[in-house]
């Protein structure tokens, strides 16, 4: 919320939650409403439409590239470097 207030005050936006149950939990949605954060209701949120959720496809491709050949990391720094190399 502070990021949005700082960088997007006055902008019109709507949150498009994925269908993770925790994102639509009563506690989460009850927090969004009084803060006047609009979001797509679960009832009309399409299920797994990758064309409108490109980050899911990108993440899947990246994970496959990072861990191909059975690669494993021992540190967070190794993982960060591997991700950067695979993105290039």
From TrEMBL:
Domain of life: Eukaryota
Matching Gene3D superfamilies: Ribonuclease H-like superfamily/Ribonuclease H
InterPro entries assigned: RNaseH_sf
GO MF annotation: an example: nucleic acid binding
Name assigned to this protein: DDE-1 domain-containing protein
């Amino acid at each position: 919320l502070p990021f949005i207030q700082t960088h997007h005050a006055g902008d019109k936006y709507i949150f498009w939650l994925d269908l993770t149950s925790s994102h639509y939990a009563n506690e989460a949605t009850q927090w969004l409403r009084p803060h006047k954060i609009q979001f797509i209701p679960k009832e009309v949120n399409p299920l797994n439409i990758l064309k409108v959720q490109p980050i899911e496809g990108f993440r899947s491709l990246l994970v496959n590239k990072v861990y191909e050949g059975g690669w494993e990391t021992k540190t967070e720094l190794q993982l960060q470097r591997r991700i950067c190399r695979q993105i290039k």
